[in-house]
């Protein structure tokens, strides 16, 4: 009993329970709406796991979620709720696109340049939120929600500028090819490359049919780096102290306002990096005129919640999220179920993850109840 | 063991309460006679409050029986307790600030006409009857936010009596009162007892037990130790029974060997959150090798004073200097680096990051210094070693708590971590604000000895406390603060408690 209780109290187990309930509720809703539950769920799983192509697509879909999720998690660890990830992501896209279109250097310069532009834009945009909080005490949630809208309309403004707008489309030109970050992107379109790939089923599926990009590698490296920064450095110590108890941090000589500003700059910068990899790694390699938010940043909040704000956890939570979003498409065209069902699954999972805090007391109650009966 | 009898207001037999695997109470007994004042004495975490919460229906006992007036009862919740005539005055008052005294008393138990309209007149009359009967002086029409803490406590007592309480539980009733207010409270308690009401006070202050109670039940680590007639025992005997070994109640110390002035405050003015002057031209000196104690009631500018010293709040005018170096309006880090260490009043808010490990908390000020970090990288091993030494030196329990959350430690052990950490900074002046708040006798003794040891090492110590006994016992120089100013200072031994108590309450010193 004690052992079972211990296992049940582990965050990982609790997350799995939450995911299970997410699917359970989705199944009930599917059944209630008249769709075959088990068939639908197996279609969903097949849509994710049935081949290298699908897995590769899930990774592509997940990459920006993981990176942005790490950005949000970083802010969370320092006590800030960065709901502005959406806006910072959009600004990162705008900066990466404009710089990627205007400049055309060889890849060794172009790629870092475009990525840096994205990071800088996100950092500035996040930093402004941090500045307003540090200087005037305005809550970051308020400012960043408004900043999200500023980002959305600024992005549309850029996208409609003559210099960037691609005629007869809904968006901008693609950035120059020298800025692309797809893995072996140029090689695989050459004749030799194609020959090699066509003869190898796995490589053909992953490299030719999909555009795997370097973003996922960056995400893994970044998750490790951010963990290192937070837990192994004096800067991370300060940031976490401010996040966990700003009063104690202040009393023991840590500059609270400076750290709030730094936290938002770093968090925004990571969201900007996510955006830059999104632009350089995914077609159409540019920004489109948006009617509404694309939700990368908002979904990242969900990723971060599922991951319990752990940067490493964001990798897995992001993959789950991306998998559901991608698998949801096959649910739509094979079963005819509305893809919104996926949003329900995600919503329920996040809901139950938030609820997992009630599991430990429940476990205690049940194990105590058992003891009482034994007497 | 006494049999069930209606001579007793309450009898609790064989009470056992477990929280998970932790046994908070085991086979605990309590018999309170009608018309008596009964104190429940025990260290922090001994189980006093748990026992009272069971009596008041906030917790359910796992085993044991409760009898009221000789009849077995099952107290499922506080409403049942109130029905049985049990009233509880919590340590933290539960009053609505914006309501008048009358409104607070009747709240939830309003006298209404048949139309359901509150009959304030009738309620007021009923309250005034009780007030008169027991000498519970209150102004029924004053707003709670405008009355003193002592009066708020009387309102809480009235609330219980208004609901027909025959048994009153007072949880640490004197913690917030001045000596004069404590005397008033004791006389009210005597009036109530004379009328046949039973009173249980939860406390760990021995002096008050002697002053107020007839009978005392001692509880140690959840177990019943003894029930004694208070008249027949000394404070020392009570303390020994409570702690389980002998303790020294009066601090042993040699006369101070004070040197030159290290720390000086001159004409300090500090505003509070509402932009009103809270510290109003305060001046103070602390010498090397001397403990200066500031006695005063909470809310007379102590908090603003400490915040100003630590540069957490701006100084409107005046100077704070250490070794001649100005500190006012610098930064908290600069203050620390200049040799000022503070044991803060609110250890959970200002002292510790509860979600951090004890290791991390121990280096909260020193993480940037060698040997705890190198080029911005934390050196975990050095942190752990430092913590280990600190844990050993200050007897923090459990011994292996280094990697545990600081929030998982008990209050006393949290305080030990803070004290150890601040002293390890090797400051020129150690500022201790309420350093023994919520600690039990054993832990208090340790804290006081530590302060004196630092003094003997030639450090300056500034002690700010709302416990008059503490200031009188530990300090070499006693300063009294009232309304943001030091009213007077005395050498230890040249002044009695009443004089200080009067000054603390704003009276003039005619001595």
UniProtKB/TrEMBL annotation, chain A:
<keyword id="KW-1003">Cell membrane</keyword>
<feature type="transmembrane region" description="Helical">
    <location>
        <begin position="12"/>
        <end position="35"/>
    </location>
</feature>
<protein>
    <submittedName>
        <fullName>Nucleoside ABC transporter membrane protein</fullName>
    </submittedName>
</protein>
<dbReference type="InterPro" id="IPR001851">
    <property type="entry name" value="ABC_transp_permease"/>
</dbReference>
<feature type="transmembrane region" description="Helical">
    <location>
        <begin position="55"/>
        <end position="76"/>
    </location>
</feature>
<feature type="transmembrane region" description="Helical">
    <location>
        <begin position="340"/>
        <end position="359"/>
    </location>
</feature>
<keyword id="KW-0812">Transmembrane</keyword>
<feature type="transmembrane region" description="Helical">
    <location>
        <begin position="83"/>
        <end position="102"/>
    </location>
</feature>
<keyword id="KW-1133">Transmembrane helix</keyword>
<feature type="transmembrane region" description="Helical">
    <location>
        <begin position="260"/>
        <end position="280"/>
    </location>
</feature>
<feature type="transmembrane region" description="Helical">
    <location>
        <begin position="300"/>
        <end position="328"/>
    </location>
</feature>
<feature type="transmembrane region" description="Helical">
    <location>
        <begin position="108"/>
        <end position="129"/>
    </location>
</feature>
<dbReference type="GO" id="GO:0022857">
    <property type="term" value="F:transmembrane transporter activity"/>
</dbReference>
<dbReference type="GO" id="GO:0005886">
    <property type="term" value="C:plasma membrane"/>
</dbReference>
<keyword id="KW-0472">Membrane</keyword>
<feature type="transmembrane region" description="Helical">
    <location>
        <begin position="141"/>
        <end position="158"/>
    </location>
</feature>
<dbReference type="Pfam" id="PF02653">
    <property type="entry name" value="BPD_transp_2"/>
</dbReference>
<feature type="transmembrane region" description="Helical">
    <location>
        <begin position="212"/>
        <end position="231"/>
    </location>
</feature>
UniProtKB/TrEMBL annotation, chain B:
<keyword id="KW-1278">Translocase</keyword>
<dbReference type="InterPro" id="IPR003593">
    <property type="entry name" value="AAA+_ATPase"/>
</dbReference>
<dbReference type="InterPro" id="IPR050107">
    <property type="entry name" value="ABC_carbohydrate_import_ATPase"/>
</dbReference>
<dbReference type="GO" id="GO:0016887">
    <property type="term" value="F:ATP hydrolysis activity"/>
</dbReference>
<feature type="domain" description="ABC transporter">
    <location>
        <begin position="10"/>
        <end position="246"/>
    </location>
</feature>
<dbReference type="InterPro" id="IPR003439">
    <property type="entry name" value="ABC_transporter-like_ATP-bd"/>
</dbReference>
<keyword id="KW-0813">Transport</keyword>
<feature type="domain" description="ABC transporter">
    <location>
        <begin position="263"/>
        <end position="508"/>
    </location>
</feature>
<keyword id="KW-1003">Cell membrane</keyword>
<keyword id="KW-0067">ATP-binding</keyword>
<protein>
    <submittedName>
        <fullName>Nucleoside ABC transporter ATP-binding protein</fullName>
    </submittedName>
</protein>
<keyword id="KW-0677">Repeat</keyword>
<dbReference type="GO" id="GO:0005886">
    <property type="term" value="C:plasma membrane"/>
</dbReference>
<dbReference type="GO" id="GO:0005524">
    <property type="term" value="F:ATP binding"/>
</dbReference>
<dbReference type="InterPro" id="IPR017871">
    <property type="entry name" value="ABC_transporter-like_CS"/>
</dbReference>
<keyword id="KW-0547">Nucleotide-binding</keyword>
<dbReference type="Pfam" id="PF00005">
    <property type="entry name" value="ABC_tran"/>
</dbReference>
<dbReference type="InterPro" id="IPR027417">
    <property type="entry name" value="P-loop_NTPase"/>
</dbReference>
<keyword id="KW-0472">Membrane</keyword>
């Amino acid at each position: 009993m004690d052992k079972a209780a211990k296992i049940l109290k582990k965050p990982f187990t609790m997350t799995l329970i939450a995911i299970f309930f997410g699917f359970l509720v989705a199944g009930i809703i599917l059944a209630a709406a008249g769709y075959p539950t088990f068939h639908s769920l197996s279609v969903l799983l097949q849509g994710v796991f049935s081949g290298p192509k699908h897995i590769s697509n899930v990774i592509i879909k997940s990459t920006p979620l993981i990176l942005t999720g790490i950005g949000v998690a970083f802010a969370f660890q320092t006590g800030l709720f960065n709901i502005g990830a959406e806006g910072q992501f959009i600004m990162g896209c705008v900066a990466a696109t404009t710089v990627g279109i205007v400049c055309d250097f060889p890849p060794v310069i172009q790629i870092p340049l475009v990525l840096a532009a994205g990071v800088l834009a996100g950092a500035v945009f996040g930093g402004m939120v941090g500045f307003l909080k540090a200087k005037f005490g305005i809550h970051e949630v308020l400012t960043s929600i408004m900043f999200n809208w500023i980002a959305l309309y600024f992005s549309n403004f850029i996208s409609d500028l003559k210099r960037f707008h691609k005629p007869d489309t809904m968006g901008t030109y693609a950035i120059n090819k020298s800025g692309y970050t797809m893995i072996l992107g140029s090689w695989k379109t050459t004749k030799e490359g194609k020959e090699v790939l066509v003869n190898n089923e796995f490589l053909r599926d992953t490299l030719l049919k999909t555009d795997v990009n370097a973003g996922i590698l960056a995400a893994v490296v970044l998750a490790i780096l951010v963990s290192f920064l937070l837990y192994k450095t004096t800067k991370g110590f300060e940031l976490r102290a401010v996040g966990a108890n700003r009063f104690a941090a202040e009393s023991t000589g840590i500059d609270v306002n400076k750290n709030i500003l730094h936290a938002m700059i770093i968090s925004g910068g990571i969201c900007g990096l996510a955006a830059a990899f999104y632009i350089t790694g995914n077609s159409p390699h540019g920004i489109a005129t948006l009617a509404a938010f694309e939700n990368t940043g908002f979904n990242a909040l969900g990723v971060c919640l599922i991951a319990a704000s752990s940067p490493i956890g964001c990798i897995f939570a992001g993959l789950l999220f991306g998998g559901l979003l991608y698998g949801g498409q096959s649910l739509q065209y094979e079963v005819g179920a509305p893809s919104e069902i996926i949003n329900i699954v995600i919503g329920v999972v996040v809901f139950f993850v938030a609820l997992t805090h009630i599991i430990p007391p429940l476990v205690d109650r049940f194990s105590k109840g058992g003891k009482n009966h034994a007497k | 063991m006494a049999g069930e009898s209606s001579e007793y207001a309450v009898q609790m037999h064989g009470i056992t309460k477990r929280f998970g695997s932790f046994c908070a109470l085991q086979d605990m007994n309590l018999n309170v006679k009608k018309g008596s004042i009964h104190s429940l004495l025990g260290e922090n975490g001994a189980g006093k409050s748990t026992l009272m919460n069971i009596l008041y229906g906030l917790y359910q006992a796992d085993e044991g029986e409760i009898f009221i007036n000789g009849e077995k009862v099952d107290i499922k919740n506080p409403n049942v307790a109130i029905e049985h005539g049990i009233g509880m005055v919590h340590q933290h008052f539960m009053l609505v600030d914006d309501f008048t005294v009358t409104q607070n008393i009747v709240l939830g138990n309003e006298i209404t006409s048949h139309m359901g309209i509150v009959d304030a007149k009738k309620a007021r009359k009923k309250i005034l009857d009780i007030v008169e009967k027991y000498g519970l002086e209150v102004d029924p029409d004053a707003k709670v936010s405008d009355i003193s803490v002592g009066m708020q406590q009387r309102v809480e007592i009235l609330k219980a009596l208004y609901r027909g309480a025959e048994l009153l539980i007072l949880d640490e009733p004197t913690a917030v009162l001045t000596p004069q207010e404590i005397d008033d409270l004791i006389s009210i308690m005597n009036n109530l007892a004379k009328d046949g009401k039973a009173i249980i006070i939860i406390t760990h202050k021995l002096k008050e037990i002697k002053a107020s109670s007839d009978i005392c039940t001692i509880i140690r680590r959840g177990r019943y130790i003894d029930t004694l007639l208070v008249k027949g025992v000394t404070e020392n005997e009570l303390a020994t029974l409570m702690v389980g070994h002998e303790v020294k109640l009066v601090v042993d110390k040699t006369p101070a060997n004070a040197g030159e002035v290290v720390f000086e405050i001159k004409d300090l003015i500090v505003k509070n959150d509402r932009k009103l002057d809270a510290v109003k031209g305060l001046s103070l000196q602390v010498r090397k090798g001397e403990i200066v104690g500031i006695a005063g009631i909470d809310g007379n500018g102590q908090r603003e004073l400490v915040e100003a010293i630590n540069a957490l709040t701006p100084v409107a005018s005046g100077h704070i200097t250490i070794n001649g170096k100005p500190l006012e309006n610098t930064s908290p880090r600069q203050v620390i680096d200049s040799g000022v260490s503070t044991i803060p009043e609110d250890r959970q808010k200002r002292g510790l990051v509860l979600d951090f490990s004890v290791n991390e908390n121990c280096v909260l000020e020193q993480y940037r210094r060698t040997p705890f970090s190198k080029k911005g990288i934390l050196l975990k091993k050095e942190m752990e070693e430092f913590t280990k030494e600190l844990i050993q030196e200050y007897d923090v329990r459990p011994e292996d708590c280094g990697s545990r959350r600081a929030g998982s430690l008990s209050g006393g052990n949290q305080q030990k971590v803070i004290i150890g950490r601040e002293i390890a900074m090797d400051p020129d002046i150690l500022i201790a604000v309420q350093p023994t708040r919520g600690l039990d006798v054993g832990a208090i003794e340790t804290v006081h000895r530590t302060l004196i040891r630092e003094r003997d090492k030639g450090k300056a110590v500034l002690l700010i406390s709302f416990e008059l006994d503490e200031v009188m016992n530990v300090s070499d120089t006693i300063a009294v603060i009232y309304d943001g100013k030091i009213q007077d200072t005395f050498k230890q031994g040249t002044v009695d408690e009443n004089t200080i108590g009067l000054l603390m309450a704003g009276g003039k010193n005619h001595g």
